[in-house]
Give the backbone structure.
Amino acid sequence: MVGPHAVDEQKAKARGVGASIPRKEDARLLEGRGRFIGDMRFPGQLEAAFVRSTLAHARIRAIHIPAHLQGRAFTHADMVGVKDILAKTGLPGFRVSAQPSLASDKVRFVGEPVAMVLAETRAEAEDLAEEITVDYEELPANFDMLRAVAPEAARIHDDWPDNAFLVSQTDRNFDARLADAPIKVTREVRTSRQCMAPLEGKGCIAVHERHTEQLHLWTSTQMPHIVRSGLAECLGLDERKIRVVAPDVGGGFGWKGLLQPEEVCCSWAALKLDRPVKWLEDRREHLIAAANCREHHYIMTAYADADGMLLGLEAVAHVDAGAYSVYPFSACLEGAQVVSNLPGPYNLPAYRCRATSVCSNKPPIVPYRGVARTGVCTAMELMIDAVARAAGRDPYEVRLANLVRPEQMPFRSITGKDFDMGDYPASLTRAHAMIGHAAVRARQKLGEADGRRIGIGYATYCEQGAHGTSVYHGWGIPMVPGFEQCGARLTPDGTLEVRVGNQSHGQSMETTLAQIACEILGIDPDLVNVVHGDTAMTPYSTGTWGSRSAVMAGGAVASACEKLAERIKRIGAHLLQAPPEAVRIEDARVVGPSGSVTFREVAFTFYRAPQNLPADADPDGLDLVAGYRPAVDTGTFSYASHACVVAVEPDTGEVEILDYVIVEDGGVLLNPMVVDGQIYGGTAQGIGTALYEEMAYDENGQPLASTFADYLLPGAGEMPQVRIAHMETPSPNTRFGQKGIGEGGAIAPPAAIGNAINDALADLGVELTFSPMTPRRVREAVEAARAGAAS
């Protein structure tokens, strides 16, 4: 007969690193037991609504608040002593923008908060907000980033000499003789501004806990510790006076990785009124006033030999960073990464790039899944196809010839990126086979009965994740990550608690971190409780961003469990009357030459029968904190090749994705099922970037999409049956060989789909370089090509 312990041991053996076990979080979330900001209410709670600017750029002459709203409505003048949000950087030439939590002298984008109104319900607060009027002196709006940096453009921040946060540039091996290259191709590439649209909008509840004399901020955030630091700066409080807690978070994508003005306002009001104050972002606020991203513009020239081998690349880029620099990343994050990431996975001999982070009268641009890399991948991959057409070769062949080869690994790119390990050409070759390249080319020659045109497109990218101290210090970002820490505690009943400072918002960390504990200690993941998202309960962390959690938090959990294992072994060895070197940890037991004891027995001895401990027992017990940072902290480099087949109806511009394949290398996969889920979700977002999503503005800086009737997201009907294949090249720099892959799925789709559309329409002389490639843009390009041919 098999006892229950034996069953548990067998179960644990198959549930460590590399196992596709079901997500522990799912039962809670699918059964409606999740706890989101929208689910929470405190006694005496007030709800906030914000009066928001109706103009993109204007001076505030006066704010008129009815007398009966005194003590219920507040402006910047009321928030005495509250400092503006400052996101500085150490990079030379960076211009600091002070972002008031409520607009003071000027408004700088439509939707900027001007006043806060509190009431018993959100509906009542919104009604009262309608009674407040603002007298504006309208100013010229900078709605286009290229015009915003012109000398004559109106200054958004009056003391700046122009509307640029920062100009980033590099010049590596560039030679004037490149102008004589056999192939010289110049293209203009533009990506539209997007909105992130997570399932749950931003929200917070601020509570003044009088018994602890602390401000408790419950907020939907990816970075509890960073929010606490920023909030403390704004309110002038010691960090010990603030506790930040992130409950369940319904998607983040970068939008929930910053300090919001609304969080500062609600926190201030909770302290002033000694009542809980709640704000929950509605969809209109989210679209017009908040999570904008992705707006890039490139003028690029590629130089190549007659076969399409790259000789050099020259680029001038602009990134629309909006009106303010967001805390803590700053406005230079996208622009600086454009310069360093544009060459992508290609062996580029010469490179020159200048990128301007532009200040405009739009909401601040915030980090979105695949920060900067989606834009640079789109620009670079469209250029590879353009070079191939100029060389008269298939884009697949030119792409394959220019990729960094496996024998060159580890490889330092022309911008100093240290590619750890991988076989980029193999990923492309496998994608080429999976998509059935030869069959697609044969189908193109036959033509389609319905008149549509078939095209095939590729994109290969590399994703730098888990950036460390040296990278972020070099970028001048004020939030420099260091050692990630984990607290590990064996509880009195022999189960395990691990405490980490990052936050899960869909990445399944409650599962994968428990699997790492299982790998080290043999304990079943179901017996591991992962605590995260609470500054009072967890070690300091810069949070969840940049595809870092599996590497950094995973390494910290492993380190903590290894140290805990040594303490468990010493107690277990004493109970087994064996020397410590003669015992080992296996399946949540201490196993010796003549028997074994369970973790439960070890824990019972330490907590409840300490008289049985060895004389030299560690007084620090079975509760510890350990830290981790890779010895090489320049990041991991996951990569993938995407290939797709599309059908384009040239008269209507409609695009259908017929097939889509991904060959991905994320190193050792902690949980392959979770990885696939991350890739599927990211790919859906990338398809939105490619074909649907656009936050357009008119010449007055007014947003033209304020509901989902105006802002189109891909749904199930727009998603193809994505096929994924894995390569597992372990990173030599991480604890288990894992690489960050959380953002990768969103990086390549716009490039692959764009190249497929251009391939389908190539014989018509059509080449699109503006995303999203909507039916209107496709149709207009076809009509322009036909008119040009006719004339």
Q: What stands out?
A: The longest helix spans residues 549-576.
